[in-house]
Design a protein that fits this description.
- This protein has 277 residues and is mostly beta strands.
- The chain has three helices and 18 strands.
- It folds into four domains: 58 residues, Beta Barrel (OB fold (Dihydrolipoamide Acetyltransferase, E2P)), CATH 2.40.50.140; 60 residues, Nucleic acid-binding proteins (OB fold (Dihydrolipoamide Acetyltransferase, E2P), Beta Barrel), CATH 2.40.50.140; 68 residues, Nucleic acid-binding proteins (OB fold (Dihydrolipoamide Acetyltransferase, E2P)), CATH 2.40.50.140; 67 residues, Arc Repressor Mutant, subunit A (Orthogonal Bundle), CATH 1.10.10.
- The radius of gyration is 27 Å and the shape is elongated.
Length: 277
């Protein structure tokens, strides 16, 4: 059986002027063309050739000995070559660019950028790529609690947080409560593994453990004081929403940072403000 979107070893069953025909069992049935310029030197009837199967511009199955940048089920970064009427066209290492349909885009993509995507077969038996990579990511990562990882944000959810492809391979999630700053789809993030779920997927945080993060947060508060001429117009008693909006920290994290600076006698807390000493 000829396997679309995959590599396989096929046998030469017929030589023609414009290439050779290949099949899985060496018979003349269910065969596919390997164009002449792709035929290895010395190939003869019965020779075995490893090829990748895709569809040409006329939507016919075609074989190639070229190495594609992505295969069926893979998750890879591909460069956007152009954006057209039905979607974006990405460079996947073969003559015919691969389509990223608009409906498979989690955000608008632009020519020249790299996009994290997976290769799949659509309802018309054509190869396409999708930015909805969740079901293609692996859950057998080598990482454990407190390991540091790097990944790509591929989806944002108001309910759950940021979905991350760790190493662009493994499935991870930064929970909503762990999100800080202006994180968006396509961003590369450094995170800490908070826990590993029973199914192997990773729970992540952008922040260190509390006792380590406290120093960083305290320095951030000092930087904010310097930028605002030594005065913050709110205290650690402000609402959690205001604190998160102004500092990017939770209320507890802000209180710990302020407590550290107060203990070191570097700030003074007034009824409605924090002042640097």
């Amino acid at each position: 059986m000829i396997k679309l979107g995959q590599k396989q070893i096929l046998k030469v069953v017929k030589k023609v002027e414009f290439g050779v025909y290949l099949s899985e069992d060496g018979s003349d049935k269910d065969k596919v063309l390997l164009p002449r310029k792709q035929v290895p030197e010395g190939a003869a009837q019965g020779s075995e050739i490893e090829v990748f199967i895709y569809r040409d511009s006329d939507d016919r199955l075609i074989a190639t000995t070229s190495e594609p940048k992505i295969m069926l089920g893979d998750v890879r970064r591909l460069k956007v070559k152009d954006v057209g009427r039905i979607g974006a066209f990405l460079d996947w290492g073969l003559e015919k660019d691969i389509l990223l349909p608009f409906r498979e885009q989690t955000r608008k993509v632009e020519k020249g950028e790299e996009v994290l995507c997976a290769l799949y077969v659509d309802k018309s038996s054509r190869l396409c790529v999708t930015m909805n990579v969740y079901k293609y990511l692996r859950s057998d990562s080598p990482y454990g609690k407190d390991d540091r990882v790097i990944g790509t944000v591929y989806e944002m959810s108001d309910n759950f947080g940021a979905f991350v492809a760790v190493d662009d391979i493994y499935s991870g999630l930064i929970a909503k409560k762990e999100l800080y700053g202006n994180i968006k789809i396509g961003d590369s993030v450094s995170a800490r593994v908070v826990s590993v779920k029973e199914d192997g997927r990773l729970n992540l945080s952008l922040r260190e453990k509390a006792y380590l993060q406290m120093d960083t947060d305290a320095e951030k508060v000092l930087g904010m004081l310097e930028d605002s001429k030594g005065v913050l117009p709110f205290t650690d008693k402000a609402s959690p929403e205001l604190i998160r909006e102004r500092t990017g920290m939770s209320k507890n994290e802000f209180k710990r940072a302020v407590g550290r600076l107060l203990k070191e006698n570097r700030i003074e807390i007034r009824p409605d403000s924090i002042v640097r000493k």
